[in-house]
Amino acid sequence: MSLIRAAGTLVLLAFLSACSGSRHDDPGGGPKLPTSELTDTTVGATYEVHLTATGGTAPLSYTLETEVPPGFSFYSADGKLTGPASASGEFSLRVSVRDVEKSVDTRTYSLKVWPAPVLSAVSPSAAFTGNGYTHTFSVAGGRPPLTFSVAEGSLPSGLSLTQDGEVTGVAELAGTKTFTLRVQDASGVKAEGRFSLEVKPGTGIPDGGSSTSFPLAVGNWNIEWFGSPTEDPADDALQLANVQSVIGDAGVDVWGLGEMVNTAQFNTLKDQLPGYEGFLSNDSTVTLGPTYYSFNEQKVGLLYKTGLVEVRQAQIVLSEYENDFAGRPPLRVDLRITRGVSSVDLTVLVLHMKAMTGADDYARRLAAGQHLKDYLDFNLPTQKVMVVGDWNDDVDGSTTTNPSTGGKFDTPYRDFVDDTVRYAFVTQAMSLQGVASTVSFSTFIDHQLVSNEMLAHYVSGSAAVLRPNIPSYGSTTSDHYPIISRYNFGEVPEHTVKLTAPNGGESLSAGVAFDITWTSAGVNTVRLQYSLDDGLTWSDIVASVPATPATYTWTVPAVESSTARVRISDAQDGTLADVSDNVFLLNRPVPTLFINEYLPHPNNVSGTQTVDFDKMFVEIRNTGTTAVDLGGYSIHDEESRRGDKPARHVFPGGTMLQPGKVYTVYSGASAVPSGVPNVAYANGGDGLRFNRGQNTGSSGDTAFLVRPDGSEQDKGKYGDAIQGVSYNRNPDGSAAGSWVLHNTLSSSTASPRTRVDGSAF
Is there a contact between 516 and 541 (Cβ–Cβ < 8 Å)? Predict the structure, then answer.
């Protein structure tokens, strides 16, 4: 077999499974063709495979007894089949091999050729600032799996593209972004298309809307076993941080939450979200709450913005049908929403229906849905009502199989779906489009039901799934995605905020004080944030500061030199926001503490074929005039920097690095020379790890030096690595130096603890 490059991607054509249709004229010592199938390919992809026989008496000769597939060539001398294919289809290749003794082996192989991928030319619809957005690009052809990416340009701020071709998020900045979309199939064949995505201004109202509108955003989110000490996600602190980030950035006014286990963890979440208040269903203020919900079970709850939302009353309803609701009867909360001098009354029911897909589970959901409709019809016939949460079933058809027919049951919520005069699922369109609301399944089960009185104020098309940009989201945060929808109740007194500086084109130096300025009306407090990736992610400058006087002194952070934007928003209403019109520069001075050399792929253990991973190393240099206490600094690779693994090494307090000297951290203890100062081995429990076992011909990795506060001090990124050859600064010992392979600077391949010429620092 051979390793080949296909459309820019290395593809190893491996045999996977046995095939039929073989003939062996000599079952003894004659030649034997491989007993495995051919790997699929794609029209246009480079393809090469050797059907090399084993055994027999050389020389061997090969014959293709069937027609060669279009575009392919077959070589009788060595049984080589090469492409690229020029037509798609499923082909049968009958190959025979004969040795000089005239022993023959014949086998039939199947080869599938997929058509080249072609992107649909349908342009994405316009998004609106402050509104949830979803668009899925479609493609015809290609060998699965297909991977989407932005090859040139960028998406509008707040929107992101998944590898499956789905654009999601909440648009933040009006304007039009033009970008090149790329899709690549499993054979490495690519297709590209140029698209534009317009974001129109609005406070949750399409076509611009009124700046004095009365907007409301409502969300629901099943946060998997939130705070549970025994159930996954295992890292409760990380789950808390991720949840705080998602809710803080979404700017939603009212959240219905599910699977809330730990009340103390929920209270901590509230404390980390300035301007929010809330409670769980077992709270003493909830009528019948402590009776039906205990402290250690899954609970529903409500989170809301203070100053905007007033809780009039909260109670558990339909408790007589507790079993049908899986022991979780709905939480009803009556709210008053106030903006300026205008108020709207709204009733929200938060529920978590019976889970699982058995026939009994379906029957209980069916009964619970009927009880719920009867309750709403009788008790809230003319009110603005929303029912949000984890319905644990879909509305276009059930997730449960009918054992009598083998097909799916009808949706258990048919009574609501058919009563279009009084109710609507604003999330139903996503069900019909095949959008998923959970990480692992393709169905949509986290719905929002509204009464016709509420539907009259629904912002058309605003219901959306938020897909947070969080590494390993499904295992660290939740198995469900947040759902949001938006409403507008009319006019209120003018409510504006406008950023005036920095507004684009400025050049700010790290550590220097800069006055952020703005104008506002009808706003009491504002939140200030900055972004280094054109609005993809935001970091707080200050969570809440008085809107007047309209200035805040910002100490510019010591981040890697980059372009940036600042965002200002109403601290009580994240949908009211403004962003720098253009990017400005953040300039960081050349650091005096930096990575000077690192070895990602060591040589083998002497006399073996085993890589001596202990000898990976990272060398840190201090070019300042005073000693540096490295205590609390840490070394990472990309995996640990994302938070998927602990830091690879954390320097103990009191680890001093003198001026002009270096400190070298090895991956394992066996590599540390005895009696040498300023050396250690990684204490993270798993070595340095830099892309272990995948260094050559891979996408590489990054060595990070991180400050005690979690910000980056320095980093070095590589694509491929040559075994035994380190990456070194050029010029050696200078933070301004570029990264080069060590053997381009001297005859040696690495020089841990010394200069490249072997002399001491």
Answer: yes
- Closest to 502 (Cα-Cα) out of 553, 576, 571: 553
Those residues of the chain that have pLDDT short of 50 are: 1-26, 203-212, 492-493, 696
Q: What is the pLDDT of residues 297-347, one digit of tens each?
A: 999 999 999 989 999 999 999 999 999 999 999 999 999 998 766 788 999
pLDDT in the model for residue 561: 67
Residue given tokens 């086998």 in the structure block = 107
> CA 710 to CA 394: how far, in whole Å?
42
CATH 1.10.3720.10 assigned to domain 3-114? The reply is no
Q: What is the pLDDT of residue 341?
A: 64
- Span 496-587 CATH architecture: Sandwich (2.60)
pLDDT at position 63, please? 95
CA–CA gap between residue 601 and residue 722 (Å, rounded): 7
Query: Where do the DSSP E strands lie in 340-438?
Result: 342-352, 385-390, 423-425
Quick one: fold of 118-200? Answer: Immunoglobulin-like (2.60.40)
E strand segments, 502-592:
507-509, 513-521, 525-531, 539-546, 551-555, 562-570, 573-579, 584-587
Type and span of the H or E element at 75: strand 73-75
| Number of C-beta neighbours around residue 124 at 10 A | 18
Question: Which CA distances in Å does 740 have to 338, 407, 602, 688, 743?
Answer: 61, 61, 16, 20, 9
- Note whether 193 and 185 are within 8 A (CB): no
CATH number of 593-744: 2.60.40.1260
Q: Where are the domains of the chain?
A: 3-114, 118-200, 213-490, 496-587, 593-744
